[in-house]
Amino acid sequence: MASYVGAQFAVIYMLIPAAETAPDEAARRRALIAGFRFYNPFTIAVLGVIVITGAMRLTDLKASIGFAYFNLIGPTLALKLGLAFLLIFIQTYITFGLAFRIGRQEEVAAHGDGEPFTVEKVNSMLSRIRAMAWVTIALAAAVLWVSLTMTARAGFGPAPASGSSARQAHTPAFGVGSSRGRGARTECA
Questions:
Q1: Domain ranges in the chain?
Q2: Confidence of residue 108 (pLDDT cuts 50, 70, 90)
Q3: Phi then psi for 185, rounded to 5 degrees?
């Protein structure tokens, strides 16, 4: 998730401002295309890794909780998945709907099959990329927050820090003392 959010900040604070310092429009477009050539596959790949590792972790969580799974984390999981899919849809829009089109239209124009985008069109696309990148950062933070509340509801969050309740029973996520599949609770020191 840090790599994904870092890529969003990089496009907002590094790529777009660096392209703005180009001496002319052709150099600006070359800089944008070069930056998006890395950004596009990188962000999609990182989101794929996040989804796969999240699914693997969820499978382990389901096995640990057992039949109480739906009661403990069902609604929270539904919210998390909704936010995650919204994040994926918006990133796909940034990648394929905006950033990729800038480079693709330059290629089309270079082959004489059309005109390059106007400066106004590119500026409009960049402002949408910047705005949507901020939305994805907010959504990523929301997904992380919901994920933490989900694991806390399941009993895998940090133990309370108050006096005698600091040594309360909780279910370990993995390892010694966990009773996978039965939802049993064990004492942890």
A1: 2-157
A2: confident
A3: -110, 140
pLDDT at 169: 42
Q: What type of residue sits at position 155?
A: G
98 within 8 A of 125, measured Cβ to Cβ: yes
The pair of three-digit structure tokens given for residue 134, joined into one six-digit string: 């901020």
**Global model pTM greater than 0.85:** no
- Considering only CA atoms, which of 57, 47, 27, 54 is closest in space to residue 88? 47
| Residue entry with tokens 């849809």 | 89
What's the mean pLDDT in 181-188?
Answer: 43
Q: Let me know: does 162 contact 176? Beta carbons within 8 Å.
A: no
